[in-house]
## 1
Amino acid sequence: MPDLQARLRIAYLTGQYPAVSHTFILREILALRDLGFDIETCSVRASGPEHQRGSDERHAAATSFYVQSSARSPRHLARTLRLGLGQPRALARMMRQAWAIRPPGFRGLAWHLFYAAEALLLAAHLDGRNIARLHNHFAGASASVSLLAATFLNIPFSFTLHGPADLVEAPQARLDRKIRAADFVACISHFARSQAMIHADPANWPKLRIIHCAVDPARYVGPGADPDSQGPVRLIFVGRLAPVKGVRVLLEAVSQARAAGTELRLTVIGDGPDRAALEAMASPLGDMVRFTGYQSQDEVAAHLTQSDIFVLASFAEGVPVVLMEAMASRLPVVATRIAGIPELVTDGENGLIVAPGDAAALARAIGRLAADPALRRRMGRVGRETVIQDFALRVEAARLARLLTEGPGSDLRPEPRSDAFGPAADQAPIPPDPIRSTG
């Protein structure tokens, strides 16, 4: 295993860790550790047991530092107070940064005073641990805390830019200031980078580099469902049950497809504020629709291998990792034409793309794939190849490793660090993928 800069020690912060909707962060951290990095995981707040269904998640929850929970420890509060009072110049530097990144108005100032207090709690935990960098996922409140803590500790700050919240809330979150303060920003797509360029000073555009969220294709190698089997075509959706995911449109499309004579079954994996309303909406469809609640990574992978089509009807996304998981499982996908999705799904090749909010178009796309097993096989094969080529975890982690150790460089898509694959690695970073027999 490579020794990248003598096990470079990096702190990661997120708003909530681990989280079922952000398993890609956990995977990225595990992949970086495999590459030789020493990652100190931190989170503003702890997650509940519903987010800790797998062993990796439970271990992450048990070994991470939680900022808000630390405020209940008299010992840590005393350490934080000593640190702040003992380094007045660092404290003043951090408070100037808090002033610089606050949005206008008293409310914005009040929140950033609160973030500064959280940052000092985090700095007290990281102080003396030889942390070389503080990296944050997302550009909102946790990025403010990360930037302020890094400013106090006088270490480099960087973050991963997602969407859509990162971009919709960019002015309020002072994305421009955070990009200026960062020494690089890992954007998950060309779309995310282009939107960051709207807010950033052009002098800071070279900091914006593209690192995809990714999956491990090996996790999704399995026998899968037989496209030629008799019976209902099995649809699957995985995601948070919130209005932005468009599940109401999906249920309407399933109803329309059934009325057109397509026999379907839909499995809905996930939970959220819309669940009760969605279950009520789905009740006329009877056993055509099944809600499972949250599932672990392994449970989701098992459901994918026993499905025929993955459907995502979202109104706003970044580049959904769940689409990568489905495509790695050789499922054809139906998704909406929004944000970075067309960078992953090529209409007619590895899936079908429809306009967001158009239930009739979604129903037609589902019906087209349901009626054509050969098309599903072909798209599923191409989809897995897409993930292997451009969204494989090991390769994207090696690209991020270059940013973490060398800075933004000159390449829009940083080349993976070759030493990240070890001396025995050949030119192909991912082994050839055996094509499953189609019978």
## 2
Amino acid sequence: MRIPRIYTSQSLSISDSVLLDKEAGNHVSRVLRMTKGQQVELFNGDGHSYFSEIIAIERSLVTVQIKESVAVANESPLNIHLYQGVSRGDKMELTLQKGVELGVSQFTPLITERCGVKLDEKRWQKKLEHWQKIIESACEQCGRNSIPTLHPVIKLQTALSELNDNSFFMHPEAKQSFKSIIADTDSDIQLWVGPEGGFSDEEINWVEAHGCKPVQLGPRVLRTETAALAAVSVMNSLWGDF
């Protein structure tokens, strides 16, 4: 059986005994039905895998002891920051999950003119907490030991102040594609993607006026979740580790 990977926010060191949180403990004991003496892999975002042995199980209370720490270098060489227009339903969750798998290092959810999700501050905070769990779970699955940063939800107009010289936004009528671009791969690469319905004409004028470069992905109009993931894949193919 593949060794289960478990994210924890705790600091970790060799020989430490670690009590897993209730959700992880329940998964180990009741879902996977693991027993004392079996192995699990912990990670906390510091770039290491901590191989551990289960030393006690009592219902959902699972204690493990760390036996070995291994540095894992499997991050993308590209520092991609995805500014994603918030989409409805599970589209945003899909973008976050697959973005983690593809190597995105930062996510910023954008409120735009055509954003179909309208929440108050308290509900946005709950949404961010839910998205954070999706990111952590995706790291467990794909083997990343560094947790991508999830920034607070921000309005597009405010986020424009963060634009750098290495920023691109998806536009189906753009004249250039990624293969015609030479990016500065030593700097953060910003990718700006609109929500369902895309950026409005006014928003396109804003981002272009701030120096963000329009890029297209072929002659077909892509859904928001497809555009983001396809663009990240193309960048990794051209400049990264694909």
